[in-house]
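Re-running the complex after MR caught last week's input typo. The corrected sequence lines follow. Everything else is unchanged.
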Amino acid sequence: MLTERQRMILNVIVDDYIRSAEPVGSRSISKRPDVGYSPATIRNEMADLEELGFLEQPHTSAGRIPSHKGYRYYVDHMTPWNSIAPAELNTIRTFFAEKLNVMEQVIQQSAMILSHMTNYTSILLGPEVFHTSLRHFQLLPLNETTAVAIIVTSTGQVENKTVAIPAGVSVSEMEKVVNLLNSKLVNVPLFKLKSRLYSEVAQELERYTSHYEELLIVLDSVLDSEHDHQVYLSGTTNMLTQPEFKDVDKVKDILDLLAETPTLMKMMTPTAGESGIQVRIGTENDHQAFANCSLITATYSLEGESLGTIGILGPTRMEYARVMSIMEIISKDLTTLLSHWYK
Amino acid sequence: MLTERQRMILNVIVDDYIRSAEPVGSRSISKRPDVGYSPATIRNEMADLEELGFLEQPHTSAGRIPSHKGYRYYVDHMTPWNSIAPAELNTIRTFFAEKLNVMEQVIQQSAMILSHMTNYTSILLGPEVFHTSLRHFQLLPLNETTAVAIIVTSTGQVENKTVAIPAGVSVSEMEKVVNLLNSKLVNVPLFKLKSRLYSEVAQELERYTSHYEELLIVLDSVLDSEHDHQVYLSGTTNMLTQPEFKDVDKVKDILDLLAETPTLMKMMTPTAGESGIQVRIGTENDHQAFANCSLITATYSLEGESLGTIGILGPTRMEYARVMSIMEIISKDLTTLLSHWYK
DNA sequence: AGTTAGCACTCATTGCTTGTGAGTGCTAAC
DNA sequence: GTTAGCACTCACAAGCAATGAGTGCTAACT
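Corrected-run output:
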């Protein structure tokens, strides 16, 4: 569809614009040593590229900037990305070599590394509760009326919830219930817990205790595992350093959206079927506030099943090649780290 | 020190400037129905107030704006604050009337309420681990080499840490250790755990197990309770709506500081001896980035001991009276809520 | 046919001037 | 002690010309 020369020019423009954030003119392109054409020729090609929708002009007689379509083409036809210095690679490697033994810490630290290395905002989605199972269940009375329910998952995550004890339930009864749950529900994937509660536990529970119904309601609420899919953000303020966001109003919408955990979670959940590194440019993100942003996501996984997502949010004028290299390395390292832990 | 009239004029200026964010001129003051003086008289008084350091002039022939000293005087001599509508009070009351049974949720929701009602940034410091004690200790093997240590506190908080099991320690040995810890350490305040570990547990541990030293190291690290003093932020982007921060560069430093949890914790820790609502205006915050901000803090407590802090960060031009009323109500309601729970 | 030089044209940006108005300080009168 | 009057200051907006980067088009060149 595009001639070799057009491709080359488009590439130069995107590269240049990513670096400078200023519209790129024909003269500056022509002056580059690897471009052997005069400004006039470049201009002709640029006019064509604009007509084809790959470039835009902020106003007549300004240079050109890439359109979303232009970025898309750039990303899709990029030379295999390897634009990351060995020193940086080392930073990542030594980080993952360190003994970090709490999942949450690893995720949080990864977010920090990502945002520091890229100078963009990083968004990490914690391990999917979906693919983990119950390791242990416990109910611990705090006083006569309340207790803490503790759920330990196979990955070592601990979730807890304070619940009210139905009046009249004795300590020994509670113990029986806990034992029953442990015998029946251990190793059941978290997302199946509730259905199992009714299919396997409910009947037996009826024989054990007189407060069958109340207890069932409590247990139901406990196992309603809020899928504690934590979202970790780092470097949100990096957004502010980008010249395209020097206007506070624009940045406000973005930061507001970043504070909305549920929305963020939805955006970060990988679209089924897709794998590897995904790039959503400008309006490809279906959120208005991100119309001038690009979101790059990758998933990390355990035994082939994706556990969570890492993401980088920046302006559409983003260092795609660089960010994508970094993301690939980190997602892979996360994956291997997890497999070392839990296999 | 100030005459009645000067006090009145200062008050009017601060009120006006809080509302409009524009320098206040003599004419506009004179026009207010409750002020019976001509602009000229006001001007004379304003000149005096400026000389005394209560007012500032952004430039010659502009109106006056309050200096830090002016705000300080305003806050210290404010008429008892009650500037909060009954409807708003209701919002708070119904919130605290709802059955919220997880501490963390309460804190987080309180942060939301605070930032929403004030349109400033709210900062909440979670309950001090200092004043809570151990309720239960548990060690749960995940596989041959790792285990999760779970600490439940008297307030129902659950903290967990994944640890490596020293090679050669059997399951039955672990059980003994756990039992020992529970018998010796339950009801000990968290911050005393480590010293007790050595004073009371260590010797007996030596008799129980052959891997005395390795285990002690592990337990030490577990009880090194990271005092999980969480900081909850809400409404950080409200900072961006203030006209004084329409310049991105200024706001960046503030947001960066807000992302630095340790610094924030230090700022929010109440200075010993002080109690009630504290106001730090402008440079009274010893952080450069907050030179144009005011931080209002209050503590919530249980049985007279302060558990945590709630804070509001806004521009120096802040609705002090309103914010202070809201903070007082919420800190008191938090206090009573806690006492209902844990008494 | 593809490439390039030349040229007129566009338009954001900058610097300059000028006018306007809000607000002040001072003085003299009340 | 208070106020009216007046000259003065200064930020800000509007208007205007100069600048220059960049374009589109045409005609000449290879």
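None of the earlier attempt is carried over here. The first strand of chain B starts at residue 55 and ends at 56. Residues 37-41, 44, 58-62 of chain B lie near DNA strand D (CB under 10 Å from a C1').
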